[in-house]
Write a structure and sequence with these properties.
Chains: A mainly alpha (about 290), B mainly alpha (about 350), C alpha/beta (about 400)
Strand content of chain A: under 5%
Number of domains of chain A: 1
Helix content of chain B: over 70%
Largest interface: A-B, 51 and 47 residues
Number of strands of chain A: 2
Distance between the termini of chain B: 23 Å
Strand order of the largest sheet of chain A: 1-2
Oligomer: heterotrimer
Number of helices of chain B: 15
Distance between the termini of chain A: 46 Å
Largest sheet of chain A: 2 strands, antiparallel
Shape of chain B: globular
CATH architecture of chain A: Orthogonal Bundle
Strand content of chain B: under 5%
Structural class of chain B: mainly alpha
Largest sheet of chain B: none
CATH architecture of chain B: Orthogonal Bundle
Number of strands of chain B: 0
Order of helices and strands of chain A: HHHHHEEHHHHHHH
Number of domains of chain B: 1
CATH class of chain A: Mainly Alpha
Number of helices of chain A: 12
Chain lengths: ~290, ~350, ~400
């Protein structure tokens, strides 16, 4: 039984790390800029497709393709922020929701046009394909890789936010934007930077997700709810919160599937409702405004 | 905010008869389209109910379709499990069931705002879908509920091949609902909802029972959504769990914003336009349709704030020296942003 | 001036000339409109595309089969799988376009919503994809040319118990109607043949690909002889099989079984060599080497590209067009609903998949099922047929299970 438990925790953590990488950008941008960006999943999707295209059409290796996707989406997000989202900061939640739905539609249609409606896959590099012996168990190498990336990213983000000047500016702006402006923080540039980072992270998440969640033109809408749940439970603008929420969701979901497969999505939605009713601002979000 | 004249006033303006006259003429002008017409009318009713909850009361919900689904399943289950086929009473039961749920969800959730409300409404709808699937023995689960038979309306008009009878039936239901909504929206209650939407804290400071009013609006919106769902079940004689789903809520949201929120006529304009465009363009190329709608949404949000109806009103108003009301509201909106 | 011919002779002469003229001039060619309602957009877009290609290929290869008449396909997208768009489309096709036949119907809700209209309009409705067993019972004008989940699941259940040494089996299925159908069919036959089902695990939905690890870990812990899995083709299957590989289910001695969907021809390239050994029960694979199939696949590759491969949806489209040609030719371009249904009931055809028959009583497809295994030779996967179960009638209706047992 403990082997099963270990398996659940391990798989849950791997799944959680993919969710984390996919959602953390959304949490930060929503927390900082008060923008409901449902199209976040579309960036992840585009990132995933860049990885697929880079590998299949340009013969790039997996890591190179991931890096390409990250850079490409960072640039694209910065551009999109300037062109579209900057104008939406003043708009209400509703307009933001609808504009981002528009982005999802357009992105999905574009991908179907370019790649067709079928799901996409990639050939992982040899050393990520098999299993690794750890403590007498055969552990899938790719899951291990994803966990490493997730933890590493968490550490890097925490360090970046706690220890760098930009991180300090970010924290200040999330806390109280007008004070930050009056203290001399260039909030406009910060927004673009953060949005760009969010896009880059979601592209990384998309690339990682190809193997774990699958990638197709419906990715953005299929997983939208899940990203929103992670962000809402974690708390807007909190990297720690997103990390915690991803772990909770990942492990509960995996454990639930092992123990009560018939329950389906019930556990996750009930958990979401329960947590939000108890703490509407999320686990580590700012308390009621 | 004195009562404005023209299309937004409490008194019926002659122009308002246009859409209804047009709707009456449709089955004669375009005989083969009555079937599509019924689907459009059902959607109009659903989106009207969403306008009350979201456009007027400002509750950004992604779970409104749950009430549509509950209404549909009420009619379906009454027919299949209880043998109750009468259509008009079926709609009443649908409204009651949806209202009960709307009230319960509202009481639970509406004391929060922002993302929490968005997520909670979504989670509630998803939970309901899952519950529906678990109770598959009763609801038919993901297979859907079949075998729904509906008695002829008023004992005489059954669901014919061309859909004419149901078109007339739906039109009457939608019109009645619209008249009722219009009264609500122009009443003090309706205006207090707008006040809550514009500045919740100030309304609380004024002593208004904010949550109570929001719950009432939500309940009524749910009831109307339930009626729309009931109509759907009666016309299609088949209901599935994705009637409660996120896609339906999302599409309704899109149609409402295209037409314009908080105006009732936004739904009347936005829904037929969207559905007709979809009917025409999706035939030519489904890919283009998706892409086109995506771009259209972005364009409307950026440049046609307030949707089509607002843009049309602005065009009409400008020669007369500009709309002062609109300007003031815009200014207040602009000032609100930092306080969030 | 003499009378050259008697009035009788003149009359006969005129008759002869007129008769000759009629015999030589072509019969007025009719255009028969066929409404095709399928999913052409969204996740199910490939179904519409494959049906189109199959139908087009038949028309190209057998232009003479239509008796000189033309068939015009009027296509409508059924979009989301809730039947709404399908119903509107069928209404439009029947009232505005005045189609004489309906075909397609990717999803069960599409068929359910459209059935009453077909009955009202007396228009034959050919199901080419929707697989729920009791669909033909919804209208006397419905006939199916594709397959039912019971047709593969039921024989597999029996075969697994009798020939594959499965005394115990776990079933994993994607939690949507085809998955549940498949589970029921397998379970019924397996248990009737003396097997024991240890676990029936719903494995997430058909839209998102879930992480299969917890489900398969659960199966592995229970150690049944066999695992029967129903998952949609594509990402679900490839992810599932990868997870099977990772968890080492084969090494744990668990045999993997499934319906033909798992090894759908145009999705085979998503799998890798570790999937070899998978045993499936299918009604069609492009690898069958019967003459009709060899010709079909060759013609397909010539028309749609060497890399393209037909799957069972394409075959359904192809066969449907064969049936439509038969109707058009026999009824001389004017399709009367009743007469068409009489012709459809009992129709036999040598399809690429094997001999098929439309059961005159149930109006459902009767076809061979093949026990096939996935083999990897040098990195390429192919299908080998181990056994054949001829002319399987839909077992749900044969055994009158649930709704299948209701009066027609």
């Amino acid at each position: 039984m403990s082997a099963a438990l270990a398996s659940i925790v391990f798989d849950g953590t791997a799944y959680a790390m993919v969710l984390f990488v996919l959602s953390v950008g959304l949490s930060v941008t929503m927390g900082l800029m008060n923008v409901v960006n449902l199209a976040h999943g579309a960036f992840a999707m585009l990132g995933g497709y860049v990885v697929v295209a880079a590998m299949s059409r340009f013969g790039m290796p997996f890591y190179g393709a991931l890096a390409t996707a990250v850079v490409a989406l960072a640039a694209a997000s910065a551009l999109l922020e300037r062109l579209l989202y900057a104008r939406l900061y003043r708009a209400g939640e509703l307009d933001q929701v609808v504009a981002s739905i528009g982005v999802i539609f357009a992105a999905s249609a574009l991908l179907v046009f370019l790649f067709g409606p079928t799901p996409q896959t990639v050939q992982l590099p040899e050393h990520l394909r098999g299993t690794v012996e750890i403590g007498g168990r055969a552990v899938p190498a790719y899951r291990l890789f994803v966990i490493a990336v997730g933890f590493g990213l968490f550490a890097a983000l925490r360090l970046g936010i706690e220890r760098t000047r930009i991180g300090a500016q970010l924290r200040a702006a999330v806390d109280n934007r007008h004070m930050a402006v009056s203290v001399g923080v260039n909030v406009r540039r910060l927004f673009t930077l953060v949005f760009s980072l969010g896009g880059a992270l979601s592209a990384l998440g998309g690339g990682l997700a190809i193997e774990v969640l699958g990638m197709g033109p419906g990715f953005a809408t299929q997983y939208l709810v899940l990203f929103l749940i992670v962000v809402a439970i974690g708390g807007l603008g909190s990297v720690r919160g997103t990390f915690a929420a991803s772990l909770v969701l990942g492990i509960v979901d995996t454990g639930g599937k092992y123990l009560f497969p018939a329950a389906g999505g019930f556990l996750i939605y009930a958990l979401t409702m329960g947590l939000l009713l108890w703490r509407p601002q999320g686990l580590m979000g700012r308390a009621a405004r | 905010m004195a009562s404005r004249r023209g299309l937004s006033g409490a008194r019926w303006h002659p122009l308002e008869a246009l859409p209804w006259l047009f709707a009456l003429a449709v089955p004669f002008l375009f005989p083969g389209y009555a079937g599509l017409g019924v689907q459009v009318l059902i959607a109009v009713l659903f989106v009207l109910s969403l306008d009350l909850v979201l456009g007027y009361a400002g509750i950004v919900t992604l779970g409104h379709a749950a009430f549509f689904g509950v209404g549909a399943y009420t009619v379906g289950l009454l027919s299949v499990r209880a043998g109750w086929n009468e259509p008009i009473s079926g709609l009443v039961f649908a409204a009651l069931a949806a209202a009960a749920l709307g009230w319960a969800v509202g009481r639970l959730i509406l004391r929060f705002h922002g993302l929490a409300v968005l997520m909670l409404t979504l989670a509630a709808a998803l939970l309901l879908q899952e519950a529906g699937n678990s109770a598959a023995a009763i609801t038919g689960g993901h297979d859907g509920l079949t075998g729904i038979t509906i008695a002829p309306i008023l004992g005489r008009f059954e669901n014919d091949l061309f859909g004419m009878h149901y078109y007339a039936y739906s039109l009457v239901v939608v019109f009645v609902a619209f008249v009722v909504l219009r009264r609500i929206v122009h009443s003090p209650f309706g205006r207090s909802l707008v006040g809550i939407r514009e500045n919740r804290d100030r309304m609380t400071a004024l002593g208004a029972d904010v949550v109570g009013r929001l719950v009432r609006a939500h309940t009524f919106g749910a009831a109307l959504a339930g009626v729309a769902g009931g109509l759907y079940a009666q016309y299609n004689a088949f209901v599935t769990l994705n009637l409660l789903g996120f896609e339906r809520s999302g599409t309704a949201l899109v149609m409402l914003v295209l037409g314009g929120t908080g105006r009732l006529y936004g739904a009347i304009v936005g829904v037929p336009l969207y559905m007709l465009l979809e009917d025409r363009l999706a035939k030519i190329s489904p890919g283009f349709w998706s892409f086109g709608i995506g771009l259209l949404l972005i364009v409307v949000v950026l440049f046609f704030r307030g949707g089509l109806v607002a843009s049309m009103q602005a065009l009409v108003r400008r020669p007369h020296g500009g709309g002062h009301d609109a300007g003031v509201v815009e200014k207040i909106r602009g000032q609100r942003e930092p306080e969030r | 001036m003499s009378r050259a011919r008697s009035p009788l002779a003149r009359g006969l002469g005129i008759v002869a000339i007129v008769a000759g003229a009629l015999a030589l001039s072509p019969v007025a060619a009719e255009t028969v409109k066929v409404g095709v309602v399928a999913s052409y957009s969204g996740p199910g877009a490939e179904v519409g595309r494959d049906l189109d290609r199959g139908m087009a290929l038949y028309r190209k290869l057998h232009p003479e089969a239509f008796g000189g008449h033309t068939v015009e396909l009027v296509k409508r997208d059924s979009r989301l799988p809730n039947g709404e768009a399908a119903k509107t489309a069928v209404q439009e096709l029947v009232t505005r376009e005045r189609v004489q036949l309906l075909a397609g119907f990717s999803y069960t809700p599409d068929a359910i919503a459209s059935a009453p209209l077909a009955t009202q309009a007396k228009t034959p409705m050919l199901l080419l994809q929707a697989a729920t067993a009791w669909l033909p019972q919804l209208s006397p004008y419905i006939a199916r040319l594709s397959f039912t989940m019971w047709q593969s699941g039921f024989p597999m259940g029996r075969y697994a118990a009798e020939k594959l040494q499965c005394r115990t089996a776990a079933v994993g299925y994607t939690d949507y109607p085809p998955g549940k159908d498949s589970l029921e069919a397998f379970r019924m036959a397996f248990e009737a043949a003396g097997g024991k089902i240890t676990d029936a695990i719903p494995m997430g939905g058909a839209v998102e690909v879930p992480d299969f690890t917890p489900f398969l870990q659960r199966v592995k812990d229970a150690r049944p002889d066999c695992l029967y899995a129903f998952i949609p083709a594509g990402n679900h299957t490839s992810s599932f099989l990868k997870t099977v590989g990772h968890l080492g289910l084969k090494d744990a001695g668990i045999k993997l079984l499934g319906p033909g969907e798992l090894v759908m021809d145009d999705k085979l390239h998503l799998l890798d060599a570790s999937a070899a050994g998978l045993v499936t029960m299918a009604h069609y694979s492009s690898f069958y080497d019967r003459p009709a199939n060899a010709a079909f696949v060759a013609a397909w590759k010539k028309e749609y590209g060497e890399d393209s491969v037909p799957n069972f949806t394409a075959v359904a489209g192809y066969d449907a067009m064969a049936l439509i040609a038969h109707l058009v030719k026999t009824l001389d371009g004017r399709i009367d609903g009743e007469r068409a249904m009489q012709l459809i009931r009992g129709w036999r055809y040598d399809s690429p998949r094997g001999p098929i028959l439309i059961d005159p009583e149930t109006r459902d497809i009767v076809q061979d099922e093949h026990v096939q295994v996935l083999v990897a030779d040098g990195g390429r996967l192919s299908i080998e047929v181990l056994d054949r179960i001829p002319q399987v009638k839909d077992p749900c209706k044969v055994h009158k299970v649930g709704r299948c047992g209701e009066a027609r």
